[in-house]
């Protein structure tokens, strides 16, 4: 949720002007998440990071209204550290504080006062507060926290590309020359993701989709595409290009690549399938989602127990409840998609897939 909130906030910061009447919904989504994160950090020195046991929860296929598994609460503190989730929570609160700075100054100050952790968090804290100590932390810990490694990775579990792109905006605007190594890393990210570059590190499917091994590939597609678009705008505003093996890569080319990924998600692909549920004439009908696949309480008032839901999980019938707007994990490396609940890596939707797509869709809907 914290990563989702960070990316939603970044979408509003960079592309809110393109959202039109949907901006209000985006702000509500950000605030819904940050209200929760404020409650999770209300005890000084403690962050409540998880509710529920993954093993017991995954062992059941039941509606949210019927859940009867233990709601175990997990926390981190000085004696039980968890700097990764603390850092992401700090980043989410700091990013959201920028979103609400002019819209709700009191709430913005509350968010910023609560935030504080590590390099990704420090980058957003510096952007939100302009305080010198966060800038110094970024400079002093760049090598220790390996900002120059795995430069083409960005997601809830790896922030390297995001850190480099975020900080590069300051460099490109002439406000942070001492952070130029982050811009160099961001340029390296661009060169690593461009097709046709000899040392490119990112694989593409035959149909042109960014593909990384592991589950839920669309999380990589949307997050990396978001960075492509954000960086292209930073380059445009500062009249810069990216040099890649003697080739000059323009901001327009980055936008074109990002748009190609968005078009693929929405149906311009070998399967002729939209991977956004409810969009287009053909989209996933059997997504790996309990609330979507089980009958609603209105249609089936009686409780559906932990194992009783297996009948609905295994049926080949389409889900009775359409989760409009959800984007699933997507096709495999050969552009094939099974549209089957048991294939959760392909058919499960997540908030961290959708969050980066918000900014992308806002921009391209306003520039087509």
Automatic annotation (TrEMBL):
Keyword Hydrolase carried by entry: yes
Keywords, ordered alphabetically: Carbohydrate metabolism, Cellulose degradation, Glycosidase, Hydrolase, Polysaccharide degradation
UniProt GO MF annotations: cellulase activity
EC numbers for this chain: 3.2.1.4
Name of the protein in its database record: Endoglucanase
Keyword Nucleotidyltransferase set for record: no
Domain Glycoside hydrolase family stretches: 115-361
Listed PANTHER family: ENDO-1,4-BETA-GLUCANASE
Cross-referenced InterPro entries: 6-hairpin_glycosidase_sf, 6hp_glycosidase-like_sf, Glyco_hydro_9, Glyco_hydro_9_Asp/Glu_AS, Glyco_hydro_9_His_AS
Entry-linked Gene3D superfamilies: 1.50.10.10
Reaction equations catalysed: Endohydrolysis of (1->4)-beta-D-glucosidic linkages in cellulose, lichenin and cereal beta-D-glucans
Annotated catalytic residues: 288, 339, 348
Family per similarity comment: Belongs to the glycosyl hydrolase 9 (cellulase E) family.
Gene Ontology terms describing biological process: cellulose catabolic process
Domain of life of the source: Eukaryota
Enzyme class, UniProt record, top EC level: hydrolase
Upper taxonomic lineage: Eukaryota, Viridiplantae, Streptophyta, Embryophyta, Tracheophyta
């Amino acid at each position: 949720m914290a990563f989702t909130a960070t990316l939603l906030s970044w979408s509003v910061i960079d592309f809110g002007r393109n959202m039109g009447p949907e901006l209000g919904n985006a702000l509500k989504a950000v605030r819904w998440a940050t209200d929760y994160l404020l409650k999770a950090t209300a005890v000084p020195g403690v962050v409540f990071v998880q509710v529920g046991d993954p093993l017991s929860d995954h062992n059941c296929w039941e509606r949210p209204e019927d859940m009867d598994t233990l709601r175990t609460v997990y926390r981190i503190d000085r004696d039980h550290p968890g700097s990764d989730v603390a850092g992401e929570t700090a980043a989410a609160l700091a990013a959201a504080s920028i979103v609400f700075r002019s819209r709700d100054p009191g709430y913005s100050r509350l968010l910023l006062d609560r935030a504080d952790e590590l390099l990704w968090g420090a980058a957003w804290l510096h952007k939100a507060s302009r305080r010198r100590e966060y800038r110094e932390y970024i400079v002093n810990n760049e090598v220790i926290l390996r900002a120059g490694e795995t430069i083409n990775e960005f997601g809830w579990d790896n922030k390297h590309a995001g850190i480099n792109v975020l900080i590069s905006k300051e460099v490109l605007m002439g406000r942070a020359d001492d952070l130029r190594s982050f811009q160099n890393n961001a340029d390296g990210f661009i060169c690593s993701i461009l097709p046709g570059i000899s040392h490119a590190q990112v694989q593409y499917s035959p149909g042109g989709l960014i593909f990384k091994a592991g589950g839920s590939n669309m999380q990589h597609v949307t997050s990396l595409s978001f960075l492509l678009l954000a960086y292209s705008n930073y380059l445009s505003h500062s009249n810069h290009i990216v040099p890649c093996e003697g080739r000059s890569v323009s901001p327009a080319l980055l936008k074109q690549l990002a748009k190609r990924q968005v078009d693929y998600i929405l149906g311009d692909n070998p399967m002729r399938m939209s991977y956004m549920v409810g969009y287009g004439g053909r989209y996933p009908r059997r997504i790996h989602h309990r609330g979507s696949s089980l009958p609603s309480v209105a249609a089936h008032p009686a409780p559906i127990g932990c194992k009783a839901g297996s009948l609905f999980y295994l049926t080949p019938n389409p889900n009775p409840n359409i989760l409009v707007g959800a984007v699933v994990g997507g096709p495999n490396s050969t552009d094939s998609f099974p549209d089957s609940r048991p294939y959760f890596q392909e058919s499960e939707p997540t908030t961290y897939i959708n969050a980066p797509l918000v900014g992308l869709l806002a921009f391209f809907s306003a520039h087509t």
